[in-house]
Write a structure and sequence with these properties.
Layout (H helix, E strand, L loop, with lengths): L4 H26 L9 H14 L2 H7 L6 H10 L5 E5 L2 E6 L2 E11 L2 E4 L5 E2 L1
Antiparallel strand pairs: 1-2, 2-3, 3-4, 3-5
Length: 123
């Protein structure tokens, strides 16, 4: 059976499109940032940025485990007392005007630092 050139062209274009899709998805997955942060100070800086922007996606990436969206919103609501976070021991200290208004527990999981799920401890 003879194939027409149009049929082959469609086959080649379909294969090229599929290959392009696979490459695109692989690149997007590879560029996804790792969850957590490499050290407590980086975690504090990332959490401060997420707090100031009210960014639930950024906070979810910093929390250990798989938090529910409502848990993330509750955490952001609780830390609203402060404007920045600093790492002190096993906590991120939430500060406003040089005064501590709360703490968020943190922990090291396989070399990456995360906010622990028990969340906010008022000052």
């Amino acid at each position: 059976m003879r194939y027409r050139w149009g049929s082959k062209r469609l086959t080649y274009l379909s294969c090229a499109a599929m290959l392009l899709w696979i490459v695109l998805v692989s690149v997007l997955i590879a560029r996804e940032p790792e969850p957590g942060e490499p050290d407590p100070d980086a975690l504090a800086a990332a959490f401060s940025r997420a707090m100031s922007n009210n960014d639930t996606d950024a906070v979810a990436r910093l929390v250990a485990g798989s938090p529910e969206p409502q848990d993330i919103e509750d955490l952001l609501r609780e830390v609203r007392c402060g404007v920045e976070a600093g790492a002190v021991g096993r906590y991120l200290v939430i500060v406003r005007g040089g005064v501590e208004c709360g703490r968020v527990p943190i922990a090291d999981h396989d070399g990456r630092w995360f906010i622990e799920p028990q969340y906010f401890v008022p000052a």
